[in-house]
Amino acid sequence: ENIFDRSRMAPKTPIKNEPVDLSKQKGCTPERNPITPVKLVDRPQPDPWTPTANLKMLVSAASPDMRDREKKKELFRPVENSEQSDTSDLLQYDIVDDTTVDEFEKQRPSRKQKSLGLLCQKFLARYPSYPLSTEKTTISLDEVASILGVERRRIYDIVNVLESLHLVSRVAKNQYCWHGRHNLSQTLKTLQEAGELQYGELMTIFQHKEQDLEYKFVERKKETIPDSQFRDFSEPDCTSASANSRKDKSLRIMSQKFVMLFLASKTKIVTLDIAAKILIEDAQDTVDHSKFKTKVRRLYDIANVLTSLGLIKKVHVTEERGRKPAFKWIGPVEFPGKTDELRGHSPTSDPLPGAQRGACAPYETCASGKQRFTRHASFNSAQPCEGTRRKVTSEPNSPRHERQDEYCSKMINLAAVCRQKTEEDTRNPSVTSPLSLLPVPGDSEFCVNPLPPAIFPVVQADVPSFSLPNSISSQALQPSMPAASKTENGKATLLPNQPFLCFPSSSFFMLCGGLQENNLRETLPTTGDVGSRSAEAQAAVPPAACQKRSSHKCASPSAPADDEEPAAKKQTMEQGDVPLSLVVPKPFESPKAESTPGSGCTSAEHLEAFHLDLSSPAAPETADKESTKSLDSQEQEKWSPSKDPGEPSSEKEHISKENANQPFLPQYLYVRPTAGLGSFNFLFSANQAPGPISLAASQLPSLSVPCVVVPSAALASFPLVCSPTVTSPLSLVPDGSFSAAASMNFSMSSLASTTPVFIGTTTVVTPKVSPTPSVDPQQPAHPALHLSPMLARSCGTVKLESPMCMGHPVTLLKLQQPSSTPLTPKSIRPARHEAFFKTPGSLGDPVAWKKNEGNQTRNASSVQRRLEISSTSPD
DNA sequence: CGATCCCGCCACATT
DNA sequence: AATGTGGCGGGATCG
Fold this sequence. Notes:
- Residues 1-50, 63-87, 338-357, 377-406, 523-577, 583-602, 616-655, 837-875 are annotated as: Disordered.
- By secondary structure, the protein is mostly helical.
- It is built from 40 helices and 10 strands.
- Strand 2 and strand 3 form a beta hairpin.
- The longest helix is centred in the first third of the chain and has 36 residues, at 184-219.
């Protein structure tokens, strides 16, 4: 009741209004529960029962409202509790009534009455859900706290969550600005997009088997050293946060992530443990029980607020283990353009939201909230976290034995990292938080982010399948996922968002990004920035793709799903494959553009076909597709035969439609260190190219290749390979020739021992390219071109063979490595034991490294350092 | 007894 | 230094 009234009333100045509300409340309460003596008591007596009461009284003097509030505790409960709680309360009260109990007792609100959820409701009741755009409501924390009769601390809990959803923004110290739900849909949309990217897969996975895995994750104490490293850059949030300050950390971000989980979940139901596990990014591996517990606690806090907002509701999920607490999303699910939130309310569509947020960070506030912004800063700054973080538990390392769990977790991390980086790169550096994306509607980059998480099928080592990146939404994936997941015991894994494919043990793997299409289109984007690419990509992907973007229009996730099926089929075929497990990523190049004329060869296209075909026939460029498709099929077959037929992987792949959407999913080749590297792995980004790669770039400046070094441990289980194709790596290198060579060597050396390598398909193939083109470091175009030719060439005849680039890689591998064994990956795993940190020199071509080093000594050092650490720590 | 989660200490950030 | 923020987890309460 109150709510209604209030909401209506909720005029601009809540505060003032408050009094009104109160009055009403009072009125109500008594009515409702005549029974409860408490109320009676309350009303009649304002007197303070607490020492502080006096103070409050004084305050109240100023405003009657306040005074009510003061009582609030007493009053509150009853009032608030309306409904259920009321009843319960009543009961209690009744008992109390009996008389025996003191008023205190009665009054004493039960815990429930004091619950954060209730408090939040009260809080929300004070402000209109859809305030007039004109009015600006400011919220004074102190005031509210006093009114609601709680400590300020509690208000922070509420406000932080609301802030994460942009219902409020911090204006200044102690001052928040109330925005209401006008932008909620927009925010949710953004979160959904980001969530799918980040958690799409995971959610899918979890939904199926998850629990087990997760369970394990949690349960075991895992530690992870490596992760920490990752974390540094990888996690946007936390890690970067370090710089930002702890603030960025938790509640706000956690809240956003939590919401993302829901939005990325098909079922819209998320169990707390899963959420906790996923949200404990850091150390997933490591986390221990206590950490998990804490996380869950926080989630309860967030859940209470979200519940009050009517976005989720508590439910229970019964699973194998039994019944687990969970929450179901009951908020809006579709976010067409922007529209408002679920509830009906006028269409609104205010522009404002966008505006307001502006590009700002998620939290940007209306007014000047500069400080806050800083928080979000993310990686850019890349500072060590340590300073701030207090608990971070960085743990020591521990050996990990985990299986899937670990893998998963790691994968997740990687994925996250990659994703983030790419995103970040894409976007402004400034942005960091997951949400960061959110804000800018217009921003092209922004768009990029939204891409749905691609799902990757996991490929087993053996199986070469490639996956397509495009998974759109996890949804589609899911079905397939299971299969994928099955991969083995854990080895293969899906990366959540990433466009990676994990191969369990094979020595190296490729991960495909969703680029395909994009790449194609991009062909020459050169724009260099990722963003542009992404944009292009999006554009490119007409049908499906569109969705991703915020664009209101398209996006229908469903489409993607459709794709899957076919894809799946295809997949199966594919799998077979080669001993090497390469996958080929999709080629990125833009086939159509130049190089390959029509030839379906381009893997990319194929991919597309897979992914897209269903959905978007439209793509003009893709016209080729048809050919591609045919190819695909053929290819598939070919592939499949090769090896494990049974591979699970098959299904998964397709999913990826998203990828397509995605502008650039980063593709990485993962090189397994076995031989030389020992502990750390490198990921080369294939596509990313220019900017995005930032990760790599930042770290390894000079390197031509954008590599990411991952501690072996972390990856160990699954190696990732970056797709080479892309560009960037090559491009990066100034000297083209060198780059190519370098990369080669590089890979070689490292891999040499065990594995084959890969690399560069692209590189290899197009050595020539690299050289000159290299001039522009980043131009994507070149790469693409290269590839395409290759593809064409290789494919040309071959076309049929591999849809993807796979073929290429394979060959390459062979060439380079004769011995290498292919796959068997998992077993191989890394010997991270060795792990030492090898210096660059050790890695590959010394020369190359040197160059790098020279250039970027610093970076290198850092990298090394990390490596060392990781390596050491683990064991 | 497990699920919830209130409460408030206290570290870190901002003034 | 004072005050604002907010991480965090002990331990009370609920179911």
